[in-house]
Amino acid sequence: MGIRVEKIDLPGIGMRHDVQTASGQDVSIITYRNGQREVALYSETDPDEVIGQIVLTRAEATAIADILGISVLVGELDQVSERVQNLYTEEIVLSAASPFAGKLLGDTQARTLTGTSVVGIDRDGTVIPSPTPKTPIEAGDVLVAVGTREALEALARLLATGTI
Known about the structure:
Layout: E1 5-10, E2 14-20, E3 26-32, E4 37-42, E5 50-56, H1 58-83, E6 88-93, E7 103-104, H2 110-114, E8 117-123, E9 126-129, E10 136-137, E11 142-147, H3 149-161
Antiparallel strand pairs: 1-2, 2-3, 3-4, 4-5, 6-11, 7-10, 8-9, 8-11
């Protein structure tokens, strides 16, 4: 069973997302128009009773999303690779010596040349999910890629040397 997220528009305020966890815990996240977030936990016996609440600034919400984002992304990709034989995820650090440091992801032609997909980039703790060919890549970036073992090895060579 998939997770159900109910999205509710709050006119003049923002947006509320209601989620029920697998364990039955109800959680609401309100995103205010100013970027502030409010996370509320509800009683399992009384769905109207708030038992915990935290208010986050935009920066705090972004930091938490970054932490959860890359770990959730890699965890989900690992689950997919367990179900699909010969499909793996790998984190590849772009070295300063790479001919692609300071260029765009599309300049690598990674998908065309290796058959891999770069599905995320971790840049100094900030996650860039689903990067496009126009996404800049920098030395020290951790590229999260999906592909066969051979294709991922080819990607690592490509990023390191500019050739396969």
